[in-house]
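Troubleshooting log. The previous run stalled partway through. Resubmitting the same two chains, unchanged.
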Amino acid sequence: MRNVVVIGVGMTNFGKFPDLTVEQLGREAAWAAMKDAGVRPQDIQVAYLGNLTERRETGHISCVAQEVLMGVGVRGIPVTRVENACTSGSTAFREAWIAVGSGLYDMAMAVGVEKLTGRGAGPLTRIGDTIDGIAGFSPPGMWAMRARRHMAQYGTTLEQMAKVAVKNRKHGKLNPRAQYPKEVTVEEVRKSPMICDPLTLLDSCPTTDGGAAAILCSEEAAKRYTSKLIYVGAAVLKSGTYDSTRNIAINEIEKRAAQEAYEWAGVGPQDLDFAEVHDCFTIAEIVRTENLGFCKEGEGGKLVEEGTTQLGGKFPVNPSGGLLCKGHPIGATGVAQVAELVWQLRGEAGARQVNGAKVGLAHCSGGFIAQDTGASTVIILKR
Amino acid sequence: MRNVVVIGVGMTNFGKFPDLTVEQLGREAAWAAMKDAGVRPQDIQVAYLGNLTERRETGHISCVAQEVLMGVGVRGIPVTRVENACTSGSTAFREAWIAVGSGLYDMAMAVGVEKLTGRGAGPLTRIGDTIDGIAGFSPPGMWAMRARRHMAQYGTTLEQMAKVAVKNRKHGKLNPRAQYPKEVTVEEVRKSPMICDPLTLLDSCPTTDGGAAAILCSEEAAKRYTSKLIYVGAAVLKSGTYDSTRNIAINEIEKRAAQEAYEWAGVGPQDLDFAEVHDCFTIAEIVRTENLGFCKEGEGGKLVEEGTTQLGGKFPVNPSGGLLCKGHPIGATGVAQVAELVWQLRGEAGARQVNGAKVGLAHCSGGFIAQDTGASTVIILKR
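Second attempt completed without errors. Output:
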């Protein structure tokens, strides 16, 4: 594997856009990334698109990747849709990294896109009808149990959980692309409608439409386009499950994905300047700051309470606003995290800039409902 | 990219299995491939699964790849579902090839699986409800137009088309895994129910459930397992469309995919001993024997009429029975073609063996309904 760099990123605004199609969202992100990189459609040699629901206005259920890419003039090349639940976008990024790293291609595009509201939307509303859904194992149900376990085992409090939402809303208010750029208080989080006890509406990420894209390039080829090289230190994917733990609050796959990513990138958690973490629920960010090695097991609640993970703190987590504020268009999320990493590492993150950021980590996990099968990705970028 | 070989393949019987789940079909194929290769689940380092409809009995719409692999003890590794319509399985094979060829992994598994009947099935029945479907652009509608164009332009006859079905049924009768191992006559093909004029039921591939799997390995690592090394000469994917042709009977992407595959593998059509071709309709095999360079443009009808492409002929096409007889479980098809190539190249194809086969080609195309977007793959294996 040779060195791979990211030379351009783009994303749509995240929000509810019932009148836009999945193709429109994907194309807007792809154009933005190409413009940012200064490349033309014909420069792209291979592309991967992360998408879960593939629900299009036309009713089609295949080739959404080709449809998105064709519409921005990227044609004739290998284009593949990948799906790994909430890690679909980060999986697309990883496949693009392998394709360039292998030496097969000099330039790749990773796109992530999801359309969850309005025309063409649909299947996610049926989670409640699945066997898991009927048994209460919807994502809120599962995370509510994890929250209760974490509270019982480590003394994590509802206030600590609420503070994750407060922090990420505060960060996201500084992000012009965020879905809910409005601050909230601990009291507002606790008093918002109960979704699945103890998780309230504001403990949960919203339903979001959006797209994101990134252009990856070999180090040699990249120098023709930019001097701001952002290196891919690692793009690790782990799937399935391990037998080693029966503690539902801990995800062994996330721990191992992080471990392998640190080895790949030649850094440890102590070398990171910030991280984008899959905060689908407030408790998820707490658990994951532990799994990723940012603090000891059971100390994730304290980490947010003490202000360590806020902008200006020692180790900002989710400076973009995270899923809780920026939004969570499933297939787009992993690529949008990469966009945030690149902007931060280039010093282009505006009001939410992490000063002097040199190394950033992005984490996604998807699946892991009742059966505990799913996928986790950890991406590390360095300047 | 280093040399990659296939050391094991497996597939389920193809047919209508309304009581089996997509997980069961995928797992049966994966077990068979591991057994054939003589490897254990823990030897697999990365896996890709091709699947279009991802419709599971549980109602879930994500992580079918992880579910299938977990059930055969393949856990903890990177597992990714890919979807490129009817090229989903061959795309999974290609990604596995890149993952091993890049040097990242020594052993990969590619699985293809599809569940189109009974419990958990569904979405494909809705093609008729899509915008394209309402406009008549279902796959039979599109291929009927292509057939008419080919007949008008090149003088291809209904009898020549029927002879593709007659040939592939004759081949498939020798394949214990085929869905319809029963010979038919030209008259039976023409008199079977009209689906979309001029295409009859027997001009069309059936609805099929099934799974297939392949184990890919670096050349060095492979020698620990077998002396029957089957080399991946090429695994090319092309997508989108080209502007260069407006002749609906010709698919420029297929031509370019074949061209690139021949360059990669260092062979030409004249060096092939046989091929598995995506014969979703009888006319499709005719057109594709032209696009892949097995004969000149417009001569595909003559090729089958003269017996060149039958077993015992100069250049057998679809010795397995093809989609028309073996069946077409969408995501599984591309990997099942690879299985046939491997059995033929090892001399293990039994009654349907192509004598002395040393080089084989497998072709899939998917998508390409009204918008003419889709994907084509060409895989070349050599012993």
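Takeaways: The mean pLDDT of chain B is 92. Chain B has 13 helices and eleven strands.
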